[in-house]
Every structure is written in structure tokens, then in C-alpha cells.
Amino acid sequence: MTSRLLQRSLGSPDYDGIRQALRDDTSTPVISVRGLEVRVAVLPLFTHDGRQAVRVSSTEPLTHVLVGVDSASGRDVTLLVPEVDAPRVLTLESRDDAGVVGSARITVTPQRKWSVYVVHHSHLDIGYTDPQGTVLRHHLDYLDAALRLAEETASWPDDAKFRWTVESSMPAVKWLAARPAEMVESFVQRGREGVIEVTALPFQLHTEACSTEELHRQLRFTRRFGFPVTSAMHTDVPGAVVGLVDALSQAGVRYLAAAHNWAGRSVPYLHGGDKLTRPFRWRAPSGNELIVWFTDTPHGMAYMEGNTVGLTDSYELADDLLPRYLSALATRGYPYGPGTFGWQGPDAPREPYELDVLHLRVQGAHADNAGPSIVPASIARRWNEEWAYPRLRSAVNSDFFQHVEERYLDRLAVHKGDWTDWWADGLGSGARPLGYVRRAQSALRVAETLHTLAGADATEEIDAAYDKVALFNEHTWGAANPWEDAEEAGDSGGLQWTRKSSGAYQAQDDAADLLHAAVRRFAAALSEAGTEGGPLASFAVFNPATRARTDVVRTFLPRDVVGVEVPIALVDARTGETVPHHEEFVDPDDWPTRPIGRHVHAVVPDVPGYGYVRLDVVPGDAQAPEPVDLGDSPAIENEFFRVAYDVREGYISSIFDKRAGRELVNGDAAAGFGQYVYDQYATAPHFNHLSGHVGAHDRTLLGDRAIGRHATITKCQRTAIGEKLVVELHGKGVDWIRTTIELHYGVPRLDLTYQLAKQGTPAKEAVFLAFPFAAGPATAWELTGGVGGPDVPRVPGSAEYMLPIRHWIAFEDPELTIAWATLEAPLVQLGTIHMPYAPFPPTLDHEDGTVYSWALNNIWDTNFPAQQQGETTFRYAVTSDVGAAGRRLGAAAAAGLTEPFVGALITDSPAATETYASVDHPDVLITSIGKDSVRLQSLAAEPVEATITMPGREPVEVRLPACGVAVIGGRAHEDR
């Protein structure tokens, strides 16, 4: 057995293979005699005295002579010729001791004079290579080292001085809080001098997992460092939401360096990525834009270009490879040839790179989380002594962009829309904690608003909770080998996921605590403003959405406020009319560990947006009626919809819109409405990056597909507030599936809840919930910071087989608009289910109106958890309306999930109703009210003007750009 037998052969790029491919692809064989080969490369290398380079390599040592010009001996030699401004033909003779082995005519062509900005940084994976705490401590050490290296090279030529770019600002924030004042001052001074740059993003985010408000808040640190923050780096994650453009722009950031790691799982070149020129201007619908650079590699070497061409190893290796790389950029599109920079896909020719300036990332070692090294700066120093061009500059990130902005801005292509992330499918690998985080995102907005309305400033606590939410949305979801459970390094999967998932649960707990406190403060403030006496108690039912609506409130009446034996009625204080309600008693024998009293459910009509309605609790004539058992009837209804369930097939067979007289379900679809679909794949678990090596051009790797079966109706009942049907099914991959279908009287919305008792397995799997609508293609969907749609531009090369949405999708036709919304599960596939391996072929015939909610999966083999289990909840909503605008109806459908009514128990009697904020444009939403600020977001595809009205203040007129965000009153990015 030889070592070659054990070399990895799964197709991952390795440096030796990539480098040799680069050599081969950038040189031409000119002599071949008796097994001897001589290759020639004309390279963009210029000496200080005006000569340019021809590099000659041979399989044996020879003397190579450019007749009448230059000669040298060896296997690899550099011959110098006077700089040419037009092609010049010369004769090459290759000689050994016996004389001329062979000769050839070669053409020396004019070459570009490059400027290469070498940007030294460390890619921050919070985890992956080590447990999270270990990684972060190392990054603080790296800043210590960066300061020392900056001091050591302060006297070097300016282009060669050690410079360091802090890829993610979080380590810098932690470092500033943990170092003595003199080190902090030195750091700030180096920042002002342009020797150290801190970039804007706190860490590398799955931006599609972020809420819009969360994304903006994570940039509040950009004013903390004592010097401007003008650039950001987006590393590893192959895509970003369109809302990132607005968020960065509002934080004063103009530049974005992206290094997309395709990891073999992505096929951007099949979706226009080969036409995406660089740099380019990325423009949001608002008109805000960034200058974007993205790295060249289409595989897993994304932020290792500089390492690949030798800039971390030695001057000699860089001297060999860097000129070849520049030559390839100038003359050929990628792929340069099989294996070069890890390219494994089909031939997708690309136009040569146009500019003579290059942004080249380098890390101190060939690894993630690598520390700083003096080697790149040392190479730059020696290089610039040896060569006039290319000129190497040890640079910070923004140096390159300033150069491009000054010289080439008008030449750059403009691309618009979402840069949809190819890695978003990984979000389904942690469905339960992801759901908790998405609930927290909603709760935090409401909590901040209620604290503010109560006169309390909870900004610091809200920001801290958002930071925990964002930290879960950081892109490192697991170890290099997540199925292992070691204590350190890349096998520490168990430890890393324990910390990662616990952060999500803690974030949700913090959000719930903040909302719990906010409701009590809000209630106390209202009680203080009210009059004593009157009803037994009251509830202020607060609507945290922008528009007035009728909806359900679920609140709690403690036994010590009103005894459970006392019959009660609820009275709308505005009208004096009784509001029907339903009660659920907390029996101390059943729940001795929980507060005793009754949960009160009521449908409250026309509650103003960002306002409340007072419901008075008064003595009733009799106890609230018990639910009416509807028996085994598989149908429920209210004024708006009639819903029927097919028990034999295990799905909803009909949703009939009574107002429109129209069926919403496509009865001819491949899957039933709300049907549980379980796929298993014929790929093996526990092989690092296996999913990046697997290609699927048909359904061969779809090992099994199963659906939920053996449905049993466990509850079908009518209460004073609506009707409910609960069905339990069995299916592969789960112990059980519980489906709850609810219609509430007066509420034009169908609510669906799916609870899965998930079984853990390392086998590759995915769960879908199908929603086939009797409609045409989706016309709009909510994104973080924007709205997508079939006619909305995307950045070329974006993922197309799936969508990571925020909450809603709309279907519009001249007769009816339908909206579908999700709370916990953001991943959807429209029209079909695709194989989860590149190039992601469909497994079903396409159906325009079908939404497949991709609830969970474990198809990744690294960086994401290898399996998931436990009870997991997914909530959805469906509504329809004649003539409604899709974006508005989508937002209304989502509001029932993301902005439920809040019931605050009050002891005195304030005003019967009050509105705290309103906006007069139907496409503008108020997302939250903070201390001295109101945050707004527009759904409109064009700029709009809106007026914000708040009691006791002058109305404020504001112009919002298309799909834009605005803050009235400031402090959006203030360092607090």
C-alpha cells in the first residue's frame, strides 16, 4: 500500500492540483522531442528597466535561448525581452550539452501592467474549526498580533507595510473591551492611518435568516471604532438579501467584498453567473447601491485566492503562480481548464477580466480562522524590489474600492435585486431553533414598542436580544464534522451545536421575557391613567400591526383577580356590546406548577393598528359555554371559508372562499393541500462535504418518497370564537404528525399548525408540506428588506430552485388574490420539489400555484447539524380577497402569525381605545416604535410619500424609496 492509495479523491480542490492546472493552462507546449517537453508562457511581468518576461519550463534542465535577446539554464527560467507594444516574433532554442534539442517561433505580446491589492484577513467561522469560545479568543489574539506586525513594519515601504482587515467587527468590539487603554489607542491610530480596517458586518450572516430590523441593528457598531467604516466583507455564504444594500448604505458603507464559497453545491454558471462582471454596482429598489467585488473561484477556495497563488507560502511560489493567474484573468474566462481553482462544473466560458487592478484576498495559513502572517507583506516588499509590475500593495479592504471608484465607476455594470443564497437550504437543518429565532424576531419588535409606549427605554436590552438572534443567524451552524462529539477542533460537533442551538433558545427566552415585561409595563401605565372602579377587570387588546383588523386575542385572567367560579362576560368598551369568548381553565390538579386562572380567547373587531381596544370583564349570567363536539365531521367553516379534510388521504381537500364563490385548492395537484411529504436520499451520511461531490441530473438519488397516512380526527369542535379540527397522522421520519386547522368567526384567515414528533436519523432526508393553490404562478413574495417576484430582477447567478422568504407569498389574478404565510419555516420551492444536489433537477411536473414549504432537512455533510429530532412546530396562514393587492394581502396574512394581538390585564379603566401611531399609505408599514424613533418599511415597488401621525405630535411627512426603510426620529445606528 502506498500513500497515493490514501490520497483524497472525492473531487475537492487541493492546492497541488489547482496550481499545476494553472501552470498547464497558462503555458503553451512549443517543443516536444523524444519525451522532452518545453512550454512557454508570456507573462505580465515587467522589470524596473523596462523589460517584460517570458517564462520557459522544460521536463529536463536545459539552456533556453531567445535568440539575440536573453538566455538562462534550468527547468524553469524567466527570460527578459524589451517591452513590446505590438506582437513580436522571436526564436526560442532549447539546448543540452549536445547542442540544440529543438526550436520554436514564439510570439511575445503586450501585457497589462497590473496593480494587485493584497487584502490580508482571517475568515471568521464562529465554530467549525474549534468550539466557538476558542475561535473567538483566537481572533482577539490575532488583533494583538496585527498590532505588533504593524509596528514592526512601520518603516517599510508604504506598499509593503503589514496591513490587516478585520473581516467581521465582532472580534474588534470584544477586543476593544478587553485590552488596556494604550493598546486601544494604538488600534484607533492604526485605523485612522489605514493600516487596520474594521469592516461593517459583525460576523458572516445568513442574511436571509435575518429580519429587516435585525439586519439594520447589527450595523450600529460601525460608529464605535473612532474611524470611518466604509466597507463590508461577506465571506463564505454564496448570496445575500437585497435588503443588505439598504442596511449597509444607511450605515455609511459603500463597498462590499464578497467571497462566495460554492462548496460544490451551487451552479451559478447555469443561471447567469458566468455573465456577472466584476466589480459591479449592486443597486436596491431604493436606489441605494454598493460597489461589489467578488472572488474568482467557483468552488471551495473562495477566500483563498491569494493563498492559492503562493502569497502565504514564499516569494518563489508567488513568483511562479501569480503572474500566471493574472495572465489567465486577462486572456481567458474561467474555467481555465479542468481543476483550476477547483472548477468541477461544465464549460461555462466567461469574458476575460477587463480591469488592470485586482482585489486578492490572503489568509495567514491555508485554513479558516487563520491568524495574521508577515509572509504576504514580506513577499510584497521583495516583489516590488524585483518587479515594476505587477505592483503589489499590502492593502486594507477599502483601498481597492477607492481606487476603482475614482477610476472606473462609470464602467461598472449595474445589477439589481436579490442575490439569492445557495446555502439557504442549510437553514432547514435546524428547524426547531430556527423557528424559535423567527418567533423572537417578531416578539422583539412588539416588546420594544410596548416598552416605549409605557414610557420605558428598553433599547439596551432589545439590542442585546437582537444580537443573540443574529448570532444564531451567523453562518457557522456546525463543526467541520458535525456528527462527531470531540472536545476540540473540527470534530467538536456536539459541543458546537449545543452552544449554537442553546443561543437560539436563549434568544427566544429573552424576547419572551422582554415582551412579558413590556405587557406588564404597558398595563401599569394604562392603569395609572385610568379611573378606579367599574368592571371586575379589563384587558387592553393591543394590535402591533400597522392596519386595523379583526383577530383573536389570547390572554390570561388570574384566579386572584377574578375567581374561576365567577361567570364573566367581555364587553367592548367602545360600544358596550358583549364580545363572545372561550375559556380554558388551568386546573391546579393538572398544572400545579403554573399560574391558576383561565385563558380567555376572544375575537376583537376592528382594533386599530398600533393601538388598543379596552375589553371589560364584567359579571356574566353563566359560565362560558363548553366547546361543542362536532363528532367525526371532517369539515369546519366561518363566514369566509369552508374547509374540508380528506381523512382517507390525509390532507385538506377543499378550501372554499364563500365571498368569491371559488375553490382555493388545486384538486388535480400531485400533492394534497397541507400534505406531509417525506423524502429520503440514496446518499451516505457522515462524509465531509459529500453533498458537494454528488451530482444529481435526475431522480436516481431519490431513494424514497412517503406521505402522511392513517389520519385520525382527534378533535372537531365549535366554540364561541370559531371552529377547530385536529387530525393526527403517522408517517416516515416522525412518531406522529398533528395538524390543527382553525377558522375564527369574523377573521378572514385560515390558520394551520403542524406539529411533528421528529425522529433523529443521520440518513439524508427532507420534509415538505405541500400547498397546491388553484392559481397561477406566484406574483410576489417577502424578502428581508425587499419584495421578490417573477419579474423582479435578481443578481445573475442567484439560486433559483428554492426561495428563502421572510413570511408571505401572494398569487394574483383578475378575479381573486390569495396569500400564504409562514412563521417558522422560511424555505420554499415553487411548483415542484427539486433534488437537493446540484444541479437540482425537479422530481415532479411543475404546477404554477403550488408552494412546497421545505420544513426541514439534513442534506449537508459539514457546517450544519447532521440530524435533528424532537417536537417541532410549523405555523401557516391562508387568506384570499377579491381585488386585493398581493403585497398588502400578503402582509395581512402574515400579521396574524407574526403580530398577534396582545392582551394586557389592567386594573383601572383608561380610554376605551387609543391609537399611538398611524400611517396614511397602504403600502407603508410601521415595524416598531423605539425610544425617540419610529421605524417604517415600504412594500411598494416605487417611491411613496406617507404621513405619520402620533398623538401630541405634529404629523411627519416622509418619503420612502421603493421597498425602502426609514427611521423617524433617529438613533437607528447610534452607538449605545
What does this protein structure show overall?
A hairpin with a 5-residue loop joins strand 12 and strand 13. The longest helix is centred in the middle third of the chain and has 37 residues. The radius of gyration is 32 Å and the shape is elongated. By secondary structure, it is of the alpha+beta class. It has 16 helices and 51 strands. Helix 12 packs antiparallel against helix 13 and helix 13 runs antiparallel to helix 14. The N terminus and C terminus are likely disordered. The strands form 11 sheets. A 10-stranded antiparallel β-sheet has the order 24-31-32-33-34-43-40-39-36-37. Strands 1, 2, 3, 4, 5 and 6 form a 6-stranded antiparallel β-sheet that branches.
Features:
elongated; 22% helix; alpha+beta; disordered N terminus; 976 residues
For the biggest sheet, the summary is: 10 strands, antiparallel
Mean pLDDT value? 93
Distance between the first and last residues' Cα: 63 Å
Structural class: alpha+beta
Helix fraction, binned, reads: 10-25%
Output the number of helix runs.
Answer: 16
The tally of strands reads 51
The low-confidence parts are 1-11, 970-976
Strand order of the largest sheet: 24-31-32-33-34-43-40-39-36-37
Q: What is the 3D shape? A: elongated
* Strand residue percentage: 25-35%
Our Rg estimate from Cα atoms comes to 32 Å
